[in-house]
Amino acid sequence: MPTPLRRLLAATVLAATTVLLAAGCAPAEQPAPAASGACDPAGLPTLTAGTLTIGTDQPVYPPWYLDDDPTSGRGFESAVAYAIADRLGYAREAVTWVRVPFNAAIAPGPKTYDLNLTEFSISDERRQAVDFSSPYYDVAQAVITVEGNAFAGATTIAELKGARLGGQVGTTSYQAIVDQIAPTTAPAVYNTNDDAKLALQNGQVDALVVDLPTAFFITSAELDGGVIVGQLPAGDGVPEQFGAVLDKDSPLTGCVSEAVDALRADGTLDALEQEWLASAGAAPELR
Amino acid sequence: MTLELSPLAQDRARYRRSRARRSTAVALVSTVVFAAAVVVGLVNTPGWPRVQATFLDPQDAWDALPSVLAGLWLNIRVLVVAELGILALGLLIALLRTLRGPVFFPVRALAIGYVDLFRGVPLLIALYLIGFGLPALRLQGVPTDVAVLGTITLILVYSAYVSEVFRAGIESVHPSQRAAARSLGLTHRQSLRLVILPQAVRRVLPPLLNDFVALQKDVGLISVLGAVDAIRAAQIQSALLFSFTPYVVAGLLFVLLAIPTGRIADAVAARAARREGA
Question: What is the DSSP letter of A51?
Answer without folding.
Answer: B
